[in-house]
Amino acid sequence: MTLENLVNRTLDRIDPDKDTTTRLLSAADGSLANARLSGITSEGSFDMAYKATMQLANAALQANGYRTLTSVSGHHRTLIQLLPQTIGLDSEKMVLFESLRKQRNLIDYSGDSVTDELAAEAVEHAAYLQKKVIDWLKANKPELMG
């Protein structure tokens, strides 16, 4: 399925915008920095790493000229599952991000606890995605970089 096939179902078309891309990348950088703070709880670290992941996936989607319809449920899932189309992320890595999304739902809605290992994994994956998104933008959409 292409991004264009999802318009009016889960996506809207937009004009890619340097200011928005820069803000999302900056926000993700801050979220990732907060996830790495010493003394932060594993829950806090996981939450901030997840937030960075969503900000980065959103930046990638918007750089391609689309945004999720937040009025439609599942927009976090959409952002993650479209990473192969937006930045060429391999499907195996996308599955890892999808598993973190599912874990986040269990944490938020069932009260599951976050281990230090899970938090560290979320931070590691968010940092990986940050590099991939920035590299993709530099190679494909340098006009959107700050």
Brief digest:
GO terms for molecular function: DNA binding. The protein has six helices and two strands.
Percent of residues in β-strands? under 5%
Supply the number of helical segments: 6
Please provide the count of β strands: 2
The pLDDT mean sits at 93
What is the rounded Rg? 15 Å
Q: Termini, distance in Å?
A: 31 Å
**Which structural class do you get from the secondary structure elements?**
mainly alpha
Unreliable stretches, pLDDT < 50, 5 or more residues? none
CATH architecture: Up-down Bundle
Bin the helical content: 55-70%
Give the quaternary arrangement of the chains. Answer: single chain
Major β-sheet, in short?
A: 2 strands, antiparallel
* Form type: globular
What spatial order of strands do you see in the largest sheet? 1-2
The CATH superfamily name is Nucleotidyltransferases  domain 2
Counting structural domains, the number is 1
- CATH topology assignment: Four Helix Bundle (Hemerythrin (Met), subunit A)
Briefly, what CATH class?
Answer: Mainly Alpha
H and E order: EHHEHHHH
Q: Could you walk me through the main structural features you see in this protein, from its secondary elements to its overall organization?
A:
This is DNA-binding protein. It comes from Spiribacter salilacus. Keywords: DNA-binding. By secondary structure, the chain is mainly alpha-helical. It has a single domain (4-144), classed as Four Helix Bundle (Hemerythrin (Met), subunit A) (Up-down Bundle). It contains six helices and two strands. A two-stranded antiparallel sheet has the order 1-2. It is globular. The mean pLDDT is 93.
